[in-house]
Structure formats: structure tokens, C-alpha cells
Amino acid sequence: MSLLGNILDYNRSFVSEKKYKQYETTKFPNKKMVILTCMDTRLLELLPNALNVKNGDVKIVKNAGALVMHPFGSIMRSLLVAVYQLQAQEVLVIGHHDCGMSGMKPDVILGEMKARGVTEEILETLNYSGINVNEWLHGFENVNESVAHSVDVIKNHPLMPKDTPVHGLVIDPKTGKLDLVIDGYSKN
Q: In this structure, what are the phi and psi dihedrals at residue 117, rounded to the nearest 5 degrees?
């Protein structure tokens, strides 16, 4: 059976046995915060447990590296929706050590793309259209600097309320230990 088939089989029993009941909550976060973090598999259960958050407590937005690459992209839009429509009053940006985006070089991923059928012509068309693919695929060298950058973009976004604290943290994906990078309550 395929992976999708296994998921759908499990889901039928999940629904018929009413296992969803234990997860019932509202769309509004109990702890009034939204978290931007990485999509790393090690954080799926570790991060909520390390922060003492449960289902219904927070909004979580995930992407590769917890990066805000564009001030008017989908990540920023999601954070603004959380603040303006879903009652989030604080933002946490949580990067992590040993991130796949750390030191990621565009030439490596471009090589893999080409091996799977992306042609040079497609890449040239994107570059011609104003999308610098090398820049878009580039990772970061220092997770603390990357988190500080994302915090800065969010905090200084023209649509983000100035009274919204934006914090920056880095989590250890082995132990769950949090290191504070930016205290959003600080006026500095």
C-alpha cells in the first residue's frame, strides 16, 4: 500500500473512533502568540514540549530555516493574520542549531534540481524574470544572525503593530534548550 493509502486508512479509523475529540479547541491561541519556526522533523514534538504549549495554545508557522525572506510573502502574511485576526499578541521566531539551511549552498540544490529535470532554460527564465534563484536558495551561515534578521523584518514591518513584542530564540534539536537571541520586551 502507498504512503497516501496508509494515511487515509488510518484517518478513517481516527475519525470513526472519534480520536479527534481530545484535540478540540478554537482557532484562537490560548497563549495569544504565534511562532515562526523551522520545518525540521526533530521539532515536531520537541518544540511544543520544550515550550510547554499544547494543542490550541499557539499558532505555528513553519518553513525552511524559520526565515522571513520577503516582507510581503506568505510567511509575513500568516504572521499578520495571526496578530490581526486570530488574537496573537506576541511573535516568537525560533530557529535551531544544526539546521539544514545553515551553510546551504545554492549550487548543491540546483545540481539536484537539474538531475531531476529542471533545465538550464527554466533557471535562465526565472533569473530573467527577476528571480535571483541563487539568492532565493541560499541558506545562512549563523543561526543567531538569521533569527535576528527575521525578527528585524517582522518587528519593522510597516503593517505590524508597533506594540507587538517580537522575540528571537534558538532551540537545541537534541535537548530542547532555548537560547534567547532577542528579547521582544526590551526597548533596544
A: 110, -5
